[in-house]
């Protein structure tokens, strides 16, 4: 009869086989990876809460060029998702706000911060998005409700978002180059460390976010 240790050994073997450097590089360069990046961005901007950075910061380590293309795809997906949320909020503001607040990554404080910011200073609110951890969907929905023009929202918000994504891209590109030898030899361990990083990040985010906003 198989023991827990046997199952653990089987899982470990599966991870080592699937997380080989060549396999991940091959996936990063595939068309499916590009499509997935777009939908990561789209769903993050709507009612999902896993940042596309979780995805393209991983692929950039195995294929920098494809990682950058994934960043662009995720960025375009984010714009498309924000466009949907902006228009829904313009027509069904109250209902969309209620659905938004059911998202575990969104708090009433976040909504109030953005809504009040738009009425005080639209440009300063866009600028604040650069260093806050408020989800994109909150900015899109409140812009639609506040009657901010779509052109103003896109021109004011998304250049700052793109710069932020580029900064993270550069950091993980450096990590990929600096630890290249280790990643090639111990890809499965690197994958586990990368996954652990994001698990800890989201654990702290959900644990602390309501005390911040």
Walkthrough of the structure:
This protein has 213 residues and is mostly helical. It is 84% helix and 0% strand. It is built from eleven helices and no strands. The chain is elongated.
In short:
By secondary structure, this protein is mainly α.
For the secondary structure, the number of strands is: 0
**What's the SSE pattern?**
HHHHHHHHHHH
Q: Number of helical segments?
A: 11
Low-confidence stretches: none
Distance between the termini: 52 Å
Q: Would you tell me the structural class of the helices and strands?
A: mainly alpha
The largest pleated sheet is described as: none
| Global outline | elongated
Share in β-strands = under 5%
**Alpha-carbon Rg, integer:** 19 Å
Helix percentage range:
over 70%
Rounded mean pLDDT score: 84
Count of individual domains: 1
Write the layout of secondary structure elements.
Elements: H1 4-18, H2 21-28, H3 31-45, H4 53-62, H5 64-101, H6 108-120, H7 122-128, H8 136-146, H9 150-178, H10 180-185, H11 187-212
Note the main attributes of this structure.
mainly alpha; 213 residues; 0% strand
């Amino acid at each position: 009869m198989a023991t827990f240790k046997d199952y653990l050994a089987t899982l470990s073997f599966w991870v080592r086989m699937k997380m080989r450097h060549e396999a991940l590089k091959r996936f990063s360069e595939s068309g499916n990876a590009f499509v997935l990046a777009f939908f990561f961005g789209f769903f993050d901007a709507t009612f999902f809460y896993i940042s596309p950075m979780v995805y393209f910061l991983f692929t950039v380590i195995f294929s920098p060029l494809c990682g950058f293309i994934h960043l662009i795809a995720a960025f375009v997906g984010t714009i498309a998702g924000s466009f949907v949320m902006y228009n829904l909020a313009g027509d069904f503001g109250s209902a969309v706000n209620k659905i938004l607040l059911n998202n575990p990554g969104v708090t009433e404080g976040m909504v109030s911060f953005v809504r009040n910011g738009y009425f005080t200073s639209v440009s300063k609110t866009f600028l604040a998005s650069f260093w806050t951890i408020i989800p994109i969907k909150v900015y899109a929905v409140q812009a639609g409700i506040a009657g901010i023009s779509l052109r103003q929202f896109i021109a004011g918000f998304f250049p700052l978002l793109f710069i932020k994504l580029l900064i993270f891209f550069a950091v993980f590109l450096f990590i990929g180059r600096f630890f290249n030898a280790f990643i090639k030899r111990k890809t499965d361990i690197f994958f586990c460390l990368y996954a652990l990083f994001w698990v800890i990040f989201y654990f702290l985010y959900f644990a602390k976010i309501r005390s911040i906003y």
